[in-house]
Structure formats: structure tokens, C-alpha cells
Amino acid sequence: MSEDRWAPPAERGPKTLSALLERLRHNCHLASSAQAGFYSLCGLLLRLRVLYKWEQGLPPWREPEPEAVLAWVAEVEGTWEALEGAPLAELELRGATFGPFQVEELNGRLRPLGLAYGAGYTRGLAPTFFLGELLEIRQEDGLTILILGEELARDLDGTPALRQGSLIFARRQALEYYLWDRLSDPAQQGDARVGAALAAFRMDPGRLAADPDRYRREFRELAALELETCIRHEIGEARDTELLEAFPLLLELFPQTRIELWLRGLKDALADVHDAGRLAYIIDRRLLASAALFFAFQPGLYPLLLPEVNAVSCRLLAGDWQALAEARQAARDRLAAEAARVRQLALALADTPARLEQELSRRFLAPLGL
User: Fold this and answer.
1) Using 50, 70 and 90 to split pLDDT, how confident is the model at 71?
2) More confident residue, 2 or 74
3) What is the band of 213 on the pLDDT scale with cuts at 50, 70, 90?
4) pLDDT at 125
5) What is the CA 367 to chain-centroid distance, rounded?
6) How far apart, in whole angstroms, are the C-alpha atoms of residue 175 and residue 169?
7) How far apart are CA 179 and CA 197, in angstroms?
8) Does 2 reside within a domain?
9) What is the dihedral angle through the alpha carbons of 206, 302, 311, 244, rounded to the nearest 10 degrees?
10) Strand partners, 91
11) Same domain, residue pair 152 and 260
């Protein structure tokens, strides 16, 4: 396979997986259809474009013809409509049948084949599924980390890393698509933080989009580093217990609401500032490129949730790592205390959802302007 092209999904994997892949792709269509409603029109089109590139075996830096993408999108939407109301399929592998969320059991059969399967729930409690080449297995303090390469099946959700209990999935291919789109976005070209990250890996921001082939190796080096920081986010989430009881309770009570949006942001911020999380990893290793991209690409609520950290972002490019370390600790202490209050409130008012929603909004969302 050429270095600048991946195999289309239909050409990946042994023929013995045909039954599994057929049913899994059915489930991925259902998952994509469920996820689509949670994105803006622009966000949905961007994710469909990535999904098209993946399906056609195009690497991140290869842009497809717009007409081909639009025709494909029409076909996909037709498939979603045809499947409306259909149940998720059970998965079959070598005579054994598995439910779509029996991740551990199915992976026990897939690992000898060099593959790994992931399933869970994403924004709005929509399902998500993926199957990919298993590149590496790590063990770290009771956590199992699976590094995936090329994927044989996936849906709209391209989250680069996710956790299920003690199992962490790190999706290299999904991360490369995400990272390329952010780095090549014309709106990012004048951002000094993006420029610093690219310069650290010998990439010229002005030439990146115009001559991507020139920087394939450097881009993948940066992507490999970013995948490690994504893993550290998941480790921080696994180690943080502040929202352990409240998070599933509140998600069940208030799905697809601004409370869910805020709660997920709080949980992610707690993971990133945890002593075992992404920011501590970046600071300990003085990873300027990763720190710069953390600030440049942070999720929408992070400026509200992490004011201490954002206040020192301009000092980072001057090499002031101590300021960032102190800001991380201050943010960690404040958010941990806030999460403890959320937990107490959630457990106390779980039987009165209307009052709980009112109190969460008054105490936590309103001060953020949400």
C-alpha cells in the first residue's frame, strides 16, 4: 500500500470477517444517523467529508472532488432513511454471536486476528462503534491501552481516544483526520500557537495546505505525539473520581441539554488538569507543540472552565512552564471542589429532577453565562 493512501474499508480485513463487517457497518449507519442530529449543519458536513475520505481510503491531506462527496452524502442520507427504526444488529464471528456492546467478549476473539473493537455512547447518548487494526497493547497501573491503526468500520464520531472502565482506545487514523483538518484550516493560519506547534516539527504554516506531500513525515510525527496526549487525557479521566457517581446519573436525567454539554466539559477539564492527565504530561516533558495545540484547539467551554490555565497561555510561548504548572494545579483544586458540590447536589436531589435542574443551572451554569 502506498504511503499516501489507505485501503478502502471494503478491501481491509480477512474474508472470514465478512459477516461481522456487514452487521457492524449496519450498526455504524444507525449510529451515524443518531449522531447527526447533535451537530450543526457545518459540523455535520465536515464529519461527513471525513467519513467519505475514510471510506475511499484517502489520507487526511488528500481532498476529494466536491461533486463526488455530495453524491455520496445523498446516498448515505438515503441509507439512513431506509434504516430508520431498525434495531442494532448482533455481531457474528466464527459461529459465535455477540451483542453490539459486548466489547470485552468480542475483543477476546479479535485480538488473535490483530484487531480491536470499540463500542459505547457519545454525545446525546448516541451509540458509536469502530473496528480497527490493533497496533499495540499497553498495560499501565491497571489500565489496558489499545492503539488502533487503520479502521475497517467506523461512524461519524471520530473521537481520537475514549475509555470504557479500565480499557482505553487510542485511534491513530481518527486522530490524523482530526488533526489535519484543524492544522490546515485557513482560519488557523495566523494563530501564533499553531505556528509554534508546526515549527517544532519543521513544518511551514504557509506551505502546509499548499504542499501537504512535503510534510507527510513531519505531520505523522506530530500526530503520534498528539495521540499520546489524548491517551493521557483518558488516563486522567480514569484516575479522577470526583464525578464518578454524579456523571451517569445526570446524563440519564438530562440528555441532549445544556446540562449535558456543561457536564461533559467539566468532566473533560477535570481529566486534563488531573495529576495523571494531559496537561501534567505536557508540562513534565516540556512539549511545546502539544501545549500550543491544547490552547489553540481547546473545546468551546474550556475558556470558561479553565480561566487560570488560559490566562497564562501567552507566557507559554516564552517558555514559562512554571506559570502553566501553577495554573494547572490551581484549576485542578478549584474544579475538584466544584465537582464535589455537583456530586452532593445530584445525590441529594436525584428524586426531584426539576428542582435539581434548577439548582444546577443557578449554581453552575448561570455563572458561566450558559
Assistant:
1) very high
2) 74
3) confident
4) 84
5) 27
6) 12
7) 12
8) no
9) -130
10) 98
11) no
Q: Are residues 346 and 252 in the same domain?
A: yes
Whether the Cβ atoms of residue 262 and residue 364 lie closer than 8 Å to each other: yes
Residues 253 and 118 in one domain: no
Is 252 domain-assigned?
yes
Residue 204 resides in a domain: no
Contact by Cβ (8 Å): 175, 159 = no
Residue 92 has what DSSP assignment?
Answer: E
DSSP 290-358: HHHHHHHS--TTHHHH-HHHHHTHHHHTTT-HHHHHHHHHHHHHHHHHHHHHHHHHHHHHTT-HHHHHH
Cα-based distances in Å from 75 to 49, 51, 70, 290: 13, 13, 9, 38
**Other beta carbons less than 10 A from residue 96's beta carbon:** 11
CA 325 to chain centre: 25
pLDDT band with cut points at 50, 70 and 90 for residue 99: very high
* CA distances in angstroms from 368 to 262, 293, 306, 314, listed in the order given: 10, 24, 11, 23
**Which domain, by its residues, includes 271?**
225-368
Give yes or no for a contact between 159 and 132, defined as CB atoms under 8 angstroms apart: no
Q: Per the structure block, which three cell numbers stand in for 21?
A: 463487517
Q: Which residues contact 41 (CB under 8 A, 6 or more apart)?
A: none
E-strand spans in 41-183? 91-93, 96-98, 115-121, 127-140, 143-153, 161-164, 167-171
Same domain, 51 and 114: yes
Contacts of 349 (CB under 8 A, 6+ apart): 355, 356, 359
Residue 236 is placed in which grid cell? 486522567
- Check pLDDT > 60 for residue 98: yes
Q: Give me the torsion for CA of 347, 351, 352, 354, rounded to 10°.
A: 80
Amino acid type, 215: Y
